[in-house]
Amino acid sequence: MATGPRYHVQFRRRRQGRTDYRMRKRLVSSGLPRAVVRCTSKNITVQFIDFKPQGDIVLAAATTKELGKLGWNHATGNLPSAYLAGFMAGKRATKAGVGKAVLDMGLKPPMKGTKVFAALKGMLDAGVEIPHGEDVLPSEERISGAHIGEDIPKMFETVSNKIKEA
């Protein structure tokens, strides 16, 4: 390990490759809450987070694990479940008074039609204003799950209606 007065040890989360502090600073300095979308292979988490100097505060959150209570019995790591998690988090955020936000994708590369942008479409449909380009959003048939199976669009409609009513 290098030593000396010119050697600078990076922050721990930067060394681990978990946080891009330049991007975080740009998002936080916008003054708007961040719409944070994190995807794993099996689950998707959507949170609306506000910055405070003492620490970040979660204003509203939803995960795809919660969809089972609403009647979703398929996989929770795909586009329709990402949309539903974003829609649920967006509804909760509007109830908490969030009208505008900025999208925080983390270290994911922005690729057209991914789960992150399906969750973004759900947040937009819930009434939260988030700056975006229309060309990155997935198509309606992919969001409804028609590309996965025949019974998924029906289940998608019932779950989305339950989220609207709640």
Proportion of residues in β-strands: 5-15%
- Mean pLDDT across all amino acids: 94
Beta-strand segment tally? 4
Class by alpha and beta content: alpha+beta
Per the CATH scheme, the topology name is: Nucleotidyltransferase, domain 5
**Global outline:** globular
Task: Summarize the amount of helix as a percent range.
Answer: 25-40%
Number of domains: 1
Number of helices: 6
Major beta-sheet overview? 4 strands, mixed
> What is the helix/strand order?
HHEEEHEHHH
* C-alpha-based Rg, rounded: 18 Å
Strand order of the largest sheet: 3-2-1-4
What is the CA–CA distance across the termini? 56 Å
The CATH architecture would be: 2-Layer Sandwich
| Parts with pLDDT < 50 across at least 5 consecutive residues | none
Instruction: State the CATH class.
Output: Alpha Beta
